[in-house]
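Researcher: Here's the sequence for the chain we discussed earlier.
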Amino acid sequence: MATFGRARRAQNGGNAFVRPLGFLLTVSLALLLLRDTAAVRGASSFATELLVPAERVLGAVGSSVSGFWQSIAEIENLRSDRDALHAQVDRYVLENVQLREQAFQAQQAAQLAAVAKALPYKTVAGPVIARDPTGVLHTIVLGIGAQDGVFLDDVVISDQGVVGRVSEVGANYSKVLLVTDSGSAVSALVQGSRAAGIVRGQFGDTLMMDWILQTEDVKVGDVVITAGLAIGNDLRSLYPKGLVLGKVVEVTKGENGTFQRAILTPAVDLRHLENVLVVNVQGAKPLQTPRVP
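Model: Thanks. This is the structure I predict for it:
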């Protein structure tokens, strides 16, 4: 009985497959035979008219979807191009900064070389490698020392004027006492009237010119230069004559009425020095222990 039941179900399953297939074959054959009749052509035309709007909608949707994905691809390409352009611009900016810095360094070197050429002394150019940013300590440190030909008490200048003198020397560094330090004293002349005095540093970034005779003509705007003269018995000028110290910004009468005093702005912007020229005005001498000014 079980075998008979299974055989019957198999036969019913086969009939369920054959019947639709036969129906489709019959319909297809009928359509082939009747395709040239007016009824079939009319039905075909009617069906086509019904499907055309749907095809248009589907075509528009397909175009929109295709355009959307194409836009996405174009956006990604634009982003890639933008990133590449940004990287290129950054590279050009960096190269431009480097070229400008090289040009600036070359300009500074050329200016110092011109100053060195005009001096009848041995000179050594060197970079400023350390300074007190607060301005309390009136010293700077140079990246050149005894092994480069720097000696104690050598004069330090820039292309603008006097910077100071070497107060300490190491093998590969040297410390410079700035002209604005209170321990600095330089014999000086007012360039126009030739009035003589002594320029000293004081607290801050200014200079003071003392011991100017009251009868001397000194006015605001006058340029003050080194005189190259000895000062008394215990002080001596370390600076050759004619180096610019600064410009007069104020003139006051002395307390005793015999002398007047001038306040100067240094010729050199000491807070922004990058390269200087060390001038050996006394000839080579052995390395000495740094002395306190």
